[in-house]
Amino acid sequence: xxxxxxxxxxxxxxxRKWLFGAAVGLWGMFAGNSxxxxxxxxxxxxxxxxxxxxxxxxxxxxHGANRISYAGIQGDQVVVHSIGVYGxxxxxxxxxxxxxxxxxxxxxxxDQGYIAGGGSQILxxxxxxxxxxxxxxxxxxxxIVSVDQLKNGKYAAAINTxxxxxxxxxxxxxLFSETGKALHEGDLEGVAFDRxxxxxxxxxxxxxxxxxxxxxxxxxxxxxxxxxxxxxxxxKQSIAVAEDSQNVDVLSLAEAHDGSIxxxxxxxxxNPNDPIRYLTTGYALSVDRSGKLQWTxxxxxxxxxxxxxxxxxxxxxxFIATGKVNEDWHGTVSRQSVWGxxxxxxxxxTKVINRASYNAxxxxxxxxxxxxxxxxxxxxxxxxxxxxxxxxQN
Length: 394
Description:
The protein is mainly beta. The chain has one domain (31-392): Methylamine Dehydrogenase, Chain H. It has one helix and 31 strands. The strands form eight sheets. It has a five-stranded mixed sheet. It has a four-stranded antiparallel sheet with strand order 3-30-29-28, with no helix packed on it. A four-stranded antiparallel sheet has the order 4-5-6-7, with no helix packed on it. The protein is globular, with a radius of gyration of 21 Å. The relative contact order is 0.14. Mean pLDDT is 89; it is low at 1-39.
């Protein structure tokens, strides 16, 4: 089957290029750390393969070292598959789901086993799928959002609990021993979450939690909270994605190679051409180890009605992100997009994939050789895509 790549081909005149560059430069003087996508410094990578991927609804993906894994419940079993560096797919293991209601998150563990959480349950099994321990959440109207293993072998879980006001939520965290004993737990004070997104272990032994809240007249903000290995809160930060942002959502959280934290998603903002239909624009942002904002990347306006579904650190010190762009108002047409982002937040290349009416990038796994594995969808069907490495422009 021939590969179809759709890219913008309109080439502005030199005068238009100069005017556009001047406008971006003036905007940059007023916008501080925010950056827009700049002309590509690298040639977008070539597509090496594009194939069907048999993934069941509700399966959860996991990033790994040179691999992607995914797990879901089939009947009374949790079934785990892995995708290798060459795109080879294999079934790793299946094991009884025990009391697990659904899988909200799962991970490989340091002892070659697995941990999964969802609803009111956490389940830990060994490398053969035998149950080692489980945990049942006793809090009413609460559920497990995310669970991960820390660098020291212990585990941390993020729980969504009801807040004191309507539609607000409180982050409750629990720190477990290697054998599943609850060691410490507490609530993150001072933040009324609209949604808690995920918990991610960090290289310093602690963990970070992401989510969103609404303040300052109802404008959405990204929330990041960093915890020490003991569970002590080291810092928390609320960040407005843009001055005109309204609704905002976090769809991806990752740690960069230098220990900084990146997150990505989308935000809604007023449409100058239509007061009723707001625009949706994808973003990525980075904070340093202390929680200070380093940069915000707002996707080019040419990619209007866009969102970033996943972002991960790449082998060159930058990042690769994927999502969808140019979605129509009825949600029936869109294009999958992949972005290369430099360590300073500037976009170095963009690739658009258009193989069906509705295309979206869901998951990205940069490989150590500079290539990339992608999980996308085309008219609702999952696709496994492999890209080569980006190279310098001629």
